[in-house]
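Q: Can I see a sequence and its folded structure?
A: Here is a first one.
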Amino acid sequence: MPTVMRIGPYRFFFYAGDRDEPIHIHIERDMALAKFWLAPVRLQHSVGFSRAELVKVESLVVEYCEAIVEAWNDYFAN
């Protein structure tokens, strides 16, 4: 599970087996988990995040989308 970045309490990561899915990112905090598609940015699913916190997390995904896409492409380049 490559960690792309950590921002505050959030860990942004993807799974090594995610190669065959559209580009996306998983975000976790404690026991909460969300998955966002990146092209375009939209929530795929979440568990444990409040609606207000999902808005905050989505804004982070949008802000760092370019870095996330670069990390995805670097990891899955092979």
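Q: Show me another, different protein.
A: A second, unrelated one:
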Amino acid sequence: MTEQEKLMRSINANEFAMWELHIYLDTHPGDCEAADKLNSYKKTTAVLVAQYEKSYGPINENSSNTNRWAWIASPWPWETGEGN
């Protein structure tokens, strides 16, 4: 496995852990230890992504929004008026 593949695997593992913690925190919003762990994964992921992009170029064109409440800002499917 190349260094690029190892770095991407680390990024993917951290992003997976972040999403799992997002899901957990949706049902356990008062768990401060999990929230701290999520913040730690966010920081580690940011460092890994910066390292990857410095060495190999951008991972993708869109930056991922890791704000766990960002989905609520979009209209719900029944609010768009499509499909009626």
